[in-house]
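Worked example 3. Consider a protein that binds ribulose-5-phosphate.
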Amino acid sequence: MSQDQMKKSAAVAAIEFVGDGDIVGVGTGSTANFFIEELAYKKSSLKGAVASSEGTASRLKQHGIKVYDLNDVDSIRVYVDGADEINGGFEMIKGGGGALTREKIVAAVAKQFVCIVDETKLVETLGKFPLPIEVIPMAREYVARCLADLGGKPVLRKDFITDNGNVIIDVEGLSLTDAASFENKVNGIVGVVTNGLFALRPADVLIVGAVGGARVTQRA
Ligand code: 5RP
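Given these inputs, the predicted complex is written out as structure tokens:
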């Protein structure tokens, strides 16, 4: 089974979590794109979606799914998104696609976060995947020095500007045994907009696409 087939099988299984009349929160990335394709088959029973990036919004619209501005929505029952890494406590590194800020906002609003991944994303300790940090451009060098002080190797993402007009610093060489406290530390650096750790708000449900089908687990 290819990695794409595993991603797709997780995306197909996530449809079970979408209810009639829902406004669904939709993530960003190749796994989320498989989910959008599945969501399109269900669009007549949906109210619509809230997108976590401009790219996802345009894909949803191409499939004829109504996209709501988050400010016009009181609540989101379910948010479905991928991850770059996820551990046994359903804490994640996200932002490989650079959409971490809007992903974190939609995840904060959603009652239930359903994370869809292929099995290569499962890790014991977060940090092998470089941690994306969205930064206000004028604070780039200051934030990079602070991140180095925290023990990482900051690398500016080349030729990349986020949907919010900011830059991304990817932090290499981390081993995050206490991800929630690291998330708090990075949040405390002036100039950081968002960091890609989702430990304070982990996923509620993990769907792993794997050889032999999708495995669905609820967070303990
Ligand atoms: C985008 C993300 C994605 O969820 C993450 O990068 C995983 O992407 P993919 O599904 O393509 O492997 O956080 O900002």
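Take a moment to read the result before moving on. The mean pLDDT is 97. The two ends are 29 Å apart (CA to CA).
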